Amino acid sequence: MIAVIVKFELKDDIRKQLSDINVAKKHIQKVVEGSRKIPGLKEKFFIMNPKTAAQGAMLIWEKQEDFDGYLKSPEYQATVLDICKGKPKIEVYLHTANLTQGVLI
Q1: How far apart are CA 93 and CA 44, in angstroms?
Q2: In which element (H, E) is residue 18 found?
Q3: What backbone phi and psi angles, to 5 degrees, belong to 27?
Q4: Based on the number of CB atoms within 10 Å of its own CB, is 7 exposed (0-12), middle (13-18) or buried (19 or more)?
Q5: By residue range, what is the domain housing residue 38?
Q6: What is the CATH number of the domain that holds 97?
Q7: Total domains present in the chain
Q8: 23 FRET partner, CA 20 to 30 A, in 3, 29, 82, 83?
Q9: pLDDT by 10s per residue, the chain, length 105
Q10: Which of 98, 93, 81, 92 is nearest to 8 (CA)?
Q11: What is the pLDDT, as a whole number, of residue 83?
Q12: What is the pLDDT of residue 100?
């Protein structure tokens, strides 16, 4: 399994829209529901910088090919590329262990 960290700054107009907590909750709920259908995605933790509203996620994937497919998907386009300012920062790691399953390598 692999672990991926994706971080990005929001476009100014999107940041302004999501400053309304009700709009933000609705947006996040929609993304959560869509994420449940992505092939190979085992877990996704959504993160936000409370000072800058920068967004991101920590994702656990079954395999690299699943993540590569996601990067070409309409879901990635809509939930990352369409709302981020510039390019997102992406870091890929080997998922070596967790508290539930213990050591995975």
Answers
A1: 14
A2: helix 12-18
A3: -60, -50
A4: middle
A5: 2-103
A6: 3.30.70.100
A7: 1
A8: 3
A9: 999 999 999 999 999 998 888 998 999 999 999 999 999 999 999 999 988 889 999 999 999 999 999 999 999 999 999 999 999 999 999 999 999 999 999
A10: 81
A11: 94
A12: 93
Strands 55-61 and 102-103: unpaired
Per-residue CA distances from 63 to 6, 41, 47 (Å)? 16, 9, 22
Do strands 84-94 and 102-103 pair parallel, antiparallel, or not at all (unpaired)?
unpaired
Contact 34, 79 (CB under 8 A): yes
Distance CA 18, CA 96 (A): 34
pLDDT, residue 53, reads 87
pLDDT at residue 50, rounded to an integer = 86
- Which amino acid type is present at position 27? H
What does the pLDDT read at residue 19? Answer: 86
Q: Compute the distance between CA of residue 79 and CA of residue 61 in angstroms, rounded to an integer.
A: 17
